[in-house]
Amino acid sequence: DPGLLTLPDALQPLGIIHTPYKQKFAIPRQPGLVKEAVGEIYFFAPFNDINCFRGIEQFSHLWILFQFHQTLNKGWKPTVRPPRLGGNQRVGVFASRSTHRPNGIGLSVVEFESLSSHQGQVCLKVKGVDLLDGTPIIDIKPYLPYADAHPNAVGGFASDLPSSVAVRFSPAALTQLQQFSDDPQKMKNLIESVLQQDPRPAYKASQSGPQAFAICLDNLNIHWQSVENSIEVTGIEVICA
Ligand code: SAM
Fold first, then answer.
1. Are residues 13 and 108 in the same domain?
2. Minimal CA–CA distance to 83: which of 69, 68, 100, 67?
């Protein structure tokens, strides 16, 4: 009888993560694909206590559990259509890592970067995130290679690394990058890695002819177009707060 099981009415967020991803479009589908994407987790009381993190720097990688807060109100269905299967074929929700799932809980392994405390505010920096800016974090645990790494594991319909596309910058975009970014080389690497994942929706990727898109990364709006199987960054402007 599931009624006999007790669960907290609501999960208590430990804190919020800030990431360069200001919208869902173009966020990589899994962690580690865009290693340049840094997330900063800021904690709420009573978790905003450096003692809660004592020893964490001994681990190169961490598991983070979080709430898919932006899709929670969409509910879930028993089957989903993973983008990896072209968006047409259905698999069970529990055979997928879809955001549309009961309880809306996400799980990502990320790289530990640093832990700091400044004026009483603890900040945990991690790398390789696939989380939207402002995502509530509900738990953090060390990644244990002896237990968690399985070199012979089989990855089903998502066994291979997703294919990537070539990315180039127009001369205008390179100039704008120099003009608008505090660290142009770092931002260029981030943009390249994000676009190499080919964020076009599957149905668009199958259409021919150039198509124009824009993505927000940090405080920049990046205009790009796809030409056959490559991507060109055509212009960059500061628009996002
Ligand atoms: N690695 C996690 C997992 O397996 O649970 C996430 C996988 S999910 C397929 C990754 C996608 O979740 C991203 O591409 C992004 O579109 C979406 N996403 C990230 N943060 C989100 C949030 N807070 N609310 C809703 N969707 C989010």
1. yes
2. 100
CA of 24 from ligand 1 middle (Å) equals: 8
- What's the token pair of residue 176? 């704008």
CATH number at 50 reads 2.40.30.70
Indicate whether residue 197 lines ligand 1 (CB < 6 A): no
Calpha distance 84→94 (Å, rounded)? 15
The reported pTM is 0.94
177-207 residue pLDDT tens = 999 999 999 999 999 999 999 998 876 666 7
Interval between CA 79 and ligand 1 midpoint (Å): 17
Q: With a 6 A CB cut-off, is 107 part of the ligand 1 pocket?
A: yes
Q: CB of 69 closer than 6 A to ligand 1?
A: yes
38 lines ligand 1 (CB under 6 A): no
Predicted confidence (pLDDT) per residue in 61-105, tens digit: 999 999 999 999 999 999 999 998 988 899 999 999 999 999 999
Phi, psi of 148 (to 5 degrees): -95, -20
Is the pLDDT at 60 greater than 70? The verdict is yes
Three-class DSSP category at 164: coil
Count structural domains, the chain.
2
Cβ(100) to ligand 1 under 6 A?
no
**Judgement on whether residues 170 and 228 belong to the same structural domain of the protein:** yes
Q: What is the CATH number of the domain that holds 215?
A: 3.30.2310.20
Q: List the structure tokens of 8.
A: 């907290």
3 state SS of 177: helix
Q: 14: CA distance to ligand 1 center in Å?
A: 18
- What is the whole-number distance in angstroms between the Cα of residue 144 and the centre of ligand 1? 23
